[in-house]
Amino acid sequence: MRNLLDFLYKYHHWLVFILLEVVSVVLLFQYNSYQGSVWFSSANAMAGKVYEIESTMTSYLTMARVNEELTLRNIYQERQLDQLRRLYAEAIKDTTDTQRKELEFLSQYQLIPAKVVENSIHKLENLITIDKGRKDGVEPDMGVACGNGIVGVVYLVSDHYAVVIPALNAASSRISCSIRNRGYFGYLHWYGGDPGVAYVEDVPRHAKFKLGEWIETSGFSSIFPSGVLVGKIEQAYNSSDGLSYKLKVRLSTDFGNLRDVVVISDKSIAERAALMQAARDSISIKQRQ
After folding, report:
1. First to last CA, the chain
2. Among 5, 25, 7, 29, which Cα is nearest to 17's?
3. Which H or E element spans position 189?
4. pTM
5. What confidence tier does 234 reach under pLDDT thresholds 50, 70, 90?
6. 175: which of 3, 188, 190, 212 fits an S-S bond (Cβ 3.0–4.6 Å)?
């Protein structure tokens, strides 16, 4: 208390000066219309600027959540479009039964949203790290996608993080793809270099397609459902043996600007994997006999 009194005594003339200035300003703007209007306009402009800054900061802080919601929405819309294509193709059949089967198919998948925390695109064996792991339901061999298309396959998992082998991995990535509405399929392979271009190999020679048509996942594996975008056909080549086509594909996913992704959880993976392993074991036993 004594220190406060000493401070007031020492600087009392400055405090009196500030008090008189405040009173003068109040009287000036209160009893003079011109000065009052200037103060009112300036105060409104300042308040508006403060509100604008607050709105910008709020928008920036909520941008991550909005991006996550948009990514999920894009994935669901892709699945809905694929469903509509199937329903249209089978319109002459029992549509009620078709819808029921498609809904059962869609119910197998659960989408786990995640964010990319580390990424590379210029190596031959690129890897991606995401911020979801075992405790979030992520397991090895789950597919990863974004709002624009495929990303890759989960490789290693810890409690809170996972490492993904992206389509841009020349050594380890081979994703089963098909030409939309054509049925012909092949395997996506990236050779390095341009991160926006990959190739679909082993497409049958009798396949019919046009440049500009879409490539999507075939659904022939337990990793990706059918209908997830891969990219558009830019050019077609003959394979080295002349028995198949090799399609140059412009990837729909911008791997250099990858932020929000989803991990596709398939409840039937374990069942299909067990069945496939049982088949391999059976063939191996017969071969030994």
Report:
1. 99
2. 25
3. strand 185-189
4. 0.61
5. very high
6. 188
What's the rounded mean pLDDT across residues 192-200?
Answer: 92
Ranges of H-type helices in the chain: 2-10, 12-31, 33-89, 95-106, 269-288
Q: Is 182 exposed, middle or buried (0-12, 13-18, 19+ CB in 10 A)?
A: middle
- Whether 108 and 271 have beta carbons less than 8 Å apart is answered as no
d(CA 203, CA 235): 13
Inter-residue contact 254 to 148 (CB < 8 Å): yes
Q: From residue 240, how far is each of 66, 243, 250 by CA, in Å?
A: 47, 8, 21
Q: How far apart are CA 27 and CA 23, in angstroms?
A: 6
The H-or-E segment that residue 250 falls in is strand 244-251
Q: Measuring CA to CA, which residue among 231, 183, 184, 223 is closest to residue 204?
A: 184
Phi/psi at 156 (nearest 5 deg)?
-125, 150
